[in-house]
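Batch job 17 of 40 flagged for manual review because the log was empty.
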Amino acid sequence: MKHLLLLLLCLFYIALPAQENEQVIKALKQHINTSENGKKLKWMDSLSNYVYFDTNRNPDSILAETIDFAVQLDSLNIAMYQLSNRMDFLNNNEGKPEKALREYKRLSQKAALLQNKGTKAKLFLNIGDSYYYIKEYETAVKYYDTTQVFAKQANEERLLGLAKMYKAGTQSQMGHFAESSQGLQESIKIFKRLKDTFNIISAKNSLSILYSQNGFYEEAQKERDEAIAFAKAIKSYSQLISFYANAATDAKKQNKPKRRIENLLLAKKASDSSMHASFYNPILLSHLSIAYAQQDSITLAETYLKKLEKTIAGTQNQRNKELHIEALKDYWFAKKNYKKALQYGKEHLTINRNSSNFENIMTAEKFLADVYEAQNNDAQAYRHFKAYENIKDSISNVQKAKGLSYYQTLYETEKRDSKIEAQQKDIALLDAENRLKNHWMLFGSLGMLGAFAGVLLYRSRTAAKKRQKLQERFSQDLIKAQEDERTRVARELHDSVGQKLMLLTKKTKNTGDAAMESLAGNTLEELRSISRGLHPASLEKLGVTKAIETMINEVDANTNIFFTNEIENIDGDLTPDQALHLYRIVQEVLNNMVKHAEAKAASVSIHKKGKTIEAFIKDNGNGFEYSEKLNNGESLGMKTLLERAKIIHSKLTIQSAHLKGTSVLLEIPT
């Protein structure tokens, strides 16, 4: 019956393109009205899918009815599948992620009983989207990670690619630039395997946005141009809107007003051809009015302002209200009505301060500075201009730091891949030599098969041990290279950039400009913080005992975890290598505790016991399954801890269980 229904829908679609929606929906509703229980649910499920996937109608009410009826009949898979569709609609079409989350939480107990891994992956993906839109980024990342787990179990590669892509976009918002770039590249590989052109374009769009956010405009334009060609070919208007809007934003940042307006007009044209014009047009009309106002094209600015007001008339949407206020402030400024420009400018600044969008706050501060300057109010103009400059400098410093992180990650990844490739060639050569020798022995000495079997077994075990030792040596060399590189970068930052900043700080004290003095001091402290993170200079200056105490005190002061520590003075008992790796192990364990454990209390103790130094770290956090974590190919941090312990010939013991906390014991021979 279900296949017959799909055939019926296809016939409607082909034969009656002009009236397909109404006729198909009418036919499905008739089936629903004349059916009961399971059959009725199947027709409701078909109607929900048709309206949601194949029409431009609002599917919210039929989705809600289908979900409730499926729950009533205890058909969890249909209920949760349609719940994920409804959350997607509320998140991406209605802009109501809070409502989407309320609907999920209302049915969360039912969702916990769901067995279908693919439907679980789809549902958790949309939950992650909801948290992303309300800017709870860490929670969003957790749900995207959970999506990946279920997608792998269900062999749903497309959902796996989407989870990686959305997680990468979230990491970008969190400032994890290098990780975001790598995640997007991974998602593109998956979509290329699936020949999923639409999501290849989406991932490239995200990558171009990532580059734009960090000032890499040429790289952003290259990714964007490639994706635009694909999007035009498949007439993906929603994606074209995003590309052109982002290109307009980049043009604005680079002070290219003509290109900015050209791209906004292209975005508006794509929006008019899309199924989501009601969502995109208010944004684009507002930006066009602002762009023309800033170019003193007042007539065109007023034209698009009126179109905006007509489009949003009768809506109570907060987003549309904010877009209207933003357009009005620039319009009245262009008209030289500074009183109204000031009124709307202040409203715009208040809105953006509440949202914590620093780039928008910076723009709002600059606008108020311009208005006050036009009114000859120099004191207020200077106050807002100074706020603008402070945010601008902070954003610039963040972009430079992200750029350094990005290129450092690329360098370390390429170096690691190069070493792995060389190591694999060496291992392959050893394997080839062993196979050749074994063949000669086999063909030349058939009469001594038993004896040579023992020799072969011995050689096989020896080769396996060699491979294991080579792999261990490689891992240890990689860690050593990483430490050497960190030390080099830290010293260069301290000796070169740091010295210049220190000189700049001293000079600013003589100018009497308190703001410049504060900015220079803050920048110098940020540089020192980065340098300390790359290489703990306190190890050399204070000794490992004091360095570890200082690290624990910093974590204690900046987190909600209550720390106790008992640390004996061990400065004279360890070599420099042992001290460094002990420090790094403690640092990694504390970082993992802060990121993942959600602990309330923790303790650190380091004691001498005969010819051994024992470092013991314990928390009362969430814990984890140690064996599962160790065997997980993505658990690089755990393997790094074990390799560091091997480097200093120490024994590392980790005990943990779900909701029972974690303890780590490191025993270092002296």
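Reviewer: the log was empty due to a logging misconfiguration, but the result itself is present. Strands lie at 562-567, 601-609, 612-619, 651-656, 662-669. Unflagging and moving on to job 18.
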